[in-house]
Structures are given as structure tokens and as C-alpha cells.
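Long-time lurker, first post. I've been practising inverse folding by hand and with some scripts of my own, and I keep getting stuck on stretches where the C-alpha cells seem ambiguous. Below is the full C-alpha cell string for one chain I'm working on. Before anyone asks, I'm not after the true native sequence, just a reasonable design that respects the backbone. If someone could post their per-position residues I'd love to compare against what I wrote down in my notebook.
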């Protein structure tokens, strides 16, 4: 990586652009302004589109940019996000989370990969292409948002009104993983996502566990029982109606997913425990790519400090997310889970739902699409192993909406690896991965110059 490129990369990473945190709004706005200026230097007309203020809380701006190409050439729309996950727990980081450090061929920083690093690398490739272009060039559009990690609410609200400005032939995304050993991977589907908080309340204050033990209902025990009721003992989902309408994969999709899926030993080495989540008896590919999940992201109640505090807590809450597949909608899935939890409230406790995010549904793309065929050709030239198809268990919530609004065919190719530790302390991105993403950006854009 050239010194000038590293300087830009590190500048971008230093913004504490945690889009879900209102206290980080200034950093998000400054990061968006950085992107606007960077794109303008490439010849784009760029602006910040400000989302409407909701509930007195402003949202991070959306960066929208366009660079006209040769008349009659295709239009490519690149989507990425500049927001990052919170850095907690801070004491688990070996280096400051927002001060990039290069060590042993990797850059460590929050956002080094997801998605500042991947987006920046890809767009550096676009810059390389534009610097050397002698003939026709495609029309290029870029949309960068600041809320992907929390549901893309602002861009989702703005996108329908930007239909003309987002119209394109191909939607390019660099926000996913390659296969192990950095073998190229084309994402043929993504699960959807929605999330919410469930809260239980009981006594009007924390109670002495001796004086009131055996009398007062315990919200901590209640939340544990409530979330445990979501699954059967074999790990399958116990919520009535949640799986209604799920579209199973085709035989071709299932075979391709199995071929590209790491085995149980590889997953165990990656996550540090046996891969025993999900419905037992189903394959890893089925559980990760084609089946929905309900995951408890966190539980809080009572005292968790040093020593003991013998109380019955007054309340408890759990944060829950659901990964969805084609045939499900966030609204129906949430309604099913809500009805289940309401039917399983422990005696004496009150249940409330908060922070419901509508998220987005999942999708799968046809393997025989012309865009995929072109991508396969380019990736085979970049790597003699050729690409595999992947159906990501993760989500990019706004992609389904952008597909509909822009009319573009999605092409999702990323260069992440499990070792990047995205969403966790000590996130990093390899310089070799950055170089691959940059080369991919240059190569794939150059294919649409006709």
C-alpha cells in the first residue's frame, strides 16, 4: 500500500462513526464530509443528503455522488457504509480502537474491514481505473450511509424519493467475506434481519433476596426462561408461525452452498467452540445460509459487579435479533415472536417491547445471471481457483430496497476473512485483502466500458 493511500485510509478510520450512538453524530457527519471531498477529487458531483429528524434525534447523513460516463455506457451504483459497530468492550482491545495501527501485514482499528476498509479499497480501485482510462468509461454512482449497523433507517426512508438518482444497471457491494484462504466468493443471497428489545418488570424496586425470596417474582429468572422458550431442546425454533412461508433452496443452490461451506473443524477453530448452534441434524450450510434464526444478543438484569449483592432485581431486558430468509417478512416474523413471548410471560411479571427495527427481508439471486457470469470470468482471471458462490448468513439490510429502487442487478463480492474479527475487539484487515479488494474494484469497473 502506497504511503499516500495509507494516509487516507488511516484518516478515514480515525472517525468514531458509530451510527447507532447519537453522541457520535458529529463524527459521523465529519466522516461523511471526508467521503464527499474524497469523491469530488475523483470528479464526482457529491452531496450530503440529510435525513429527516425523528423524535428530536438527527441521523447521520447519506453521501450521494455521481460521475457521468461515456454516452450509452452502463451505469454502476456502488453501495457502502461508513458507520461502524461500537468498540465495546474497550478493555479487550490491544490497541486504541480508533487509532489505526499496522502490524504484521494487518491494519488494526474499528472499521478497518467493516465496511470502511472494504469500501475504501474498492473505491481506490475505481480511482486507479479512472486515472488510466483511455477510452469509454461507465457512469458511476456512489451511495454511502451511516446507519447500516443499526438497520439503515435513514437511507430506507430517503431511497424511494431518490429513485431517479439511484437508477443503475448494476449494484456493486464490497461488504462481505471471501471464502477461506481468500478464494473469491460471489454472494448469491443474504439473510434479512430485524431486531428488538424485550423488557420484563416486577417489583417497584430491587428487593432484599432474603426478606422477599419465595414471594416476589424474579425478572432475572423470568427473562432467562422467556428467551429459553424460543427454542426447542434440539436447537430448532419453537415459535408457532415463525417458519411459515420459508422458501427452501433449490437443489443447485444447496449443492453449491455445501461445496463452499467450511467444515465443522474449521468453524470450531474460528469461533473457539463446537459449531452446535441451530437445529441439530441439519447441515452447517443449511443452518447458516438457508434457515432463519432467533438470537439473543444480550441480557441485563440486577447486579453484575464484583462481589455479591443479594437482591431480587426490579427488572430485566434482553436484546434479540432475527435473521430471515426468503418467504419471511420482518413484520410477520416479529408478530409471531411477539405472540409467543406474550404467551410465555412468567407469572407476576409485565412484558414490554422496545426498539423494534423493521429491518429487511432476505433474498437469493439466480445463479445463471449475466452479471454473475461476467464476475466469474473476472475472478477466474484474478485467481486460478475461480470463485465459489456463497449465501451469507449475515445481512445488509438496505440491499433489498436498493435493488427495487435502482432497478440494478446486485453483484456482492467482498474480501473479508474470519480472522478480521469484525464486530469484535481487535478488528483488522490484511494488506493482502485490501489489495485484492482494490484490484477487484479496478477490474470489474473496467468490464463495463462498452
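-- Answer (accepted) --
I ran through it position by position. Result:
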Amino acid at each position: 500500500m502506497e504511503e499516500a493511500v495509507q494516509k487516507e485510509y488511516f484518516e478515514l478510520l480515525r472517525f468514531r462513526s458509530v451510527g447507532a450512538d447519537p453522541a457520535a453524530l458529529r463524527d459521523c457527519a465529519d466522516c461523511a464530509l471526508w467521503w464527499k471531498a474524497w469523491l469530488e477529487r475523483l470528479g464526482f458531483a457529491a452531496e450530503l443528503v440529510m435525513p429527516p429528524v425523528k423524535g428530536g434525534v438527527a441521523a447521520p447523513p447519506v453521501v450521494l455522488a455521481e460521475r457521468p460516463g461515456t454516452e450509452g455506457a452502463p451505469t454502476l451504483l456502488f453501495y457502502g457504509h461508513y458507520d461502524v459497530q461500537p468498540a465495546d468492550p474497550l478493555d479487550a482491545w490491544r490497541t486504541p480502537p480508533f487509532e489505526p495501527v499496522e502490524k504484521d501485514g494487518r491494519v488494526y482499528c474499528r472499521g478497518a474491514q467493516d465496511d470502511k476498509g472494504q469500501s475504501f479499497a474498492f473505491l481506490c480501485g475505481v480511482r486507479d481505473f479512472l486515472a488510466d482510462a483511455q477510452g469509454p468509461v461507465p457512469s458511476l454512482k456512489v451511495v454511502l450511509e451511516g446507519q447500516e449497523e443499526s438497520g439503515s433507517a435513514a437511507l430506507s426512508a430517503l431511497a424511494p424519493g431518490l429513485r431517479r438518482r439511484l437508477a443503475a444497471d448494476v449494484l456493486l457491494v464490497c461488504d462481505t467475506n471471501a471464502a477461506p484462504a481468500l478464494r473469491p466468493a460471489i454472494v448469491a443471497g443474504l439473510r434479512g434481519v430485524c431486531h428488538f428489545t424485550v423488557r420484563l418488570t416486577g417489583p417497584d424496586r430491587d428487593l432484599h433476596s432474603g426478606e422477599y425470596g419465595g414471594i416476589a417474582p424474579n425478572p432475572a429468572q423470568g427473562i432467562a426462561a422467556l428467551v429459553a422458550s424460543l427454542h426447542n431442546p434440539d436447537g430448532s425454533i419453537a415459535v408457532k408461525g415463525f417458519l411459515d412461508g420459508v422458501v427452501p433452496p433449490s437443489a443447485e443452490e444447496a449443492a453449491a452452498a455445501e461445496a463452499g461451506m467450511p467444515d465443522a473443524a474449521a468453524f470450531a477453530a474460528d469461533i473457539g467452540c463446537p459449531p452446535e448452534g441451530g437445529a441439530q441434524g441439519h447441515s452447517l450450510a443449511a443452518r447458516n445460509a438457508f434457515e432463519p434464526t432467533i438470537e439473543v444478543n444480550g441480557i441485563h438484569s440486577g447486579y453484575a459487579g464484583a462481589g455479591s449483592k443479594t437482591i431480587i432485581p426490579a427488572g430485566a431486558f434482553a436484546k434479540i435479533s432475527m435473521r430471515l430468509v426468503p418467504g419471511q417478512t420482518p413484520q410477520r416474523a416479529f408478530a409471531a415472536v411477539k405472540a409467543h413471548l406474550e404467551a410465555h410471560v412468567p407469572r407476576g411479571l409485565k412484558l414490554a417491547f422496545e426498539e423494534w427495527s423493521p429491518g429487511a427481508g432476505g433474498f437469493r439471486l439466480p445463479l445463471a445471471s449475466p452479471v454473475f457470469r461476467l464476475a466469474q470470468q473476472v475472478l477466474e482471471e484474478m485467481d486460478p481457483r475461480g470463485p465459489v458462490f456463497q449465501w451469507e448468513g449475515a445481512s445488509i439490510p438496505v440491499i433489498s430496497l436498493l435493488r427495487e429502487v435502482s432497478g440494478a442487478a446486485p453483484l456482492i463480492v467482498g474480501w473479508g476473512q474470519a480472522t478480521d474479527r469484525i464486530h469484535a475487539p481487535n478488528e483488522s484487515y490484511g494488506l493482502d485483502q485490501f489489495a485484492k479488494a482494490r484490484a477487484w474494484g479496478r477490474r470489474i469497473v473496467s468490464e463495463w466500458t462498452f
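A couple of notes from the structure itself: Residues 116-132 form the longest helix (17 residues). The chain has a mean pLDDT of 96. Happy to go over any region you disagree with.
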